[in-house]
Amino acid sequence: MRDRFRAAELETPDLDARLLAQAAFGFDAMALVRRERDIAPEPGATDLERFALRRLAGEPVSRIVGHKEFWGLDLTLNDATLVPRPETEMLVAEALHFLEGKRAPRIVDLGTGSGAIAISIVTGLPKAKAIATDVSDEALAMARQNAERHAVADRIEFRKGAWWQAVPHTELFDVIVSNPPYIATEVIDTLMPEVKMFDPKLALDGGWDGLEAYRAIAAQAARRLNPGGLALFEIGSNQGGAVSRMFGRAGFGRVEVLKDLQGLDRVVLASHS
Fold first, then answer.
1. Cβ distance 177 to 123 under 8 Å?
2. What's the CA gap between 166 and 159, in Å, rounded?
3. Which residue numbers belong to the known binding site for S-adenosyl-L-methionine?
4. CA-CA distance, 141 to 35, in Å (whole number)?
5. What residues form the annotated binding site for substrate?
6. What is the pTM of this model?
7. What region, left, alpha or beta, does residue 251 occupy, with left being phi > 0 and alpha being psi -120 to 50 degrees?
């Protein structure tokens, strides 16, 4: 399950430098190219030196600049939010494909973090509404800010609570989606420094076997779906069998494991039929 975190940042050193320079000087990519021969202005030069030292100490670029692109959206981050990873976009793609043509779908995003998944889905479906939960006040504040920035805050309700705690039994959904913590506790110290030192442990630690969150979600997931609904969960590459069996025992008639572009197990898809 370490594969997801084998490299916290995919950027090359050259791209790292450009992104840090853009942040330090307040330039976009084109402005940076146009002014590459100019004398570096202050205080940008000082900021760039400070950013470079942080990067050399192992801090990911997205943490330094405070934002990350996900599904074509620029999302702001804070210390309580996981940096969105490209592979998590599979959840968004599957949800949007499934919900295409549905009149007014309802989605619940359990453990929303920065709001990346819920915001991306709702942005792609103008009639959709979502509930997004998290146990962290700081993460929820960041997710709300991101939703406001992308003009979907009126269609996402943010609630504090672990998994189903903030979602009454009377509320049913067309899609349940979650990217829960799935790293076994004892594995966290072996992850890349960029991850174990800078990502929030709460968003990484899946308990002794990495499956605690799935157990909590599976306990109620089947009865929280509307007829014909779909549940989607990101998983670690060695968890496909365990998680699919768990949701099969929890009352889902159809459970599939989807692979990412590297051929690794990445998403469990579950429905009643």
1. no
2. 6
3. 111-115, 134, 163, 179
4. 36
5. 179-182
6. 0.86
7. left
pLDDT value for 75: 97
User: In whole angstroms, what is the distance from residue 18 CA to residue 15 CA?
Assistant: 5
- Taking the CB of residue 252, how many other CB atoms lie within 10 A of it? 22
Short-list 184, 239, 232, CA closest to 207: 184
Average pLDDT over residues 49-53: 75
The binding site consists of 111-115, 134, 163, 179-182
The closest alpha carbon to 246, from 273, 204, 212, belongs to 212
For residue range 190-212, list pLDDT tens digits in order: 998 888 888 899 999 999 999 99
- Helices (H) then strands (E): counts for the chain: 10, 9
Domains of the chain, start order: 3-65 (no CATH), 69-75+79-271 (3.40.50.150)
Residue 225: strand pairing partners? 173
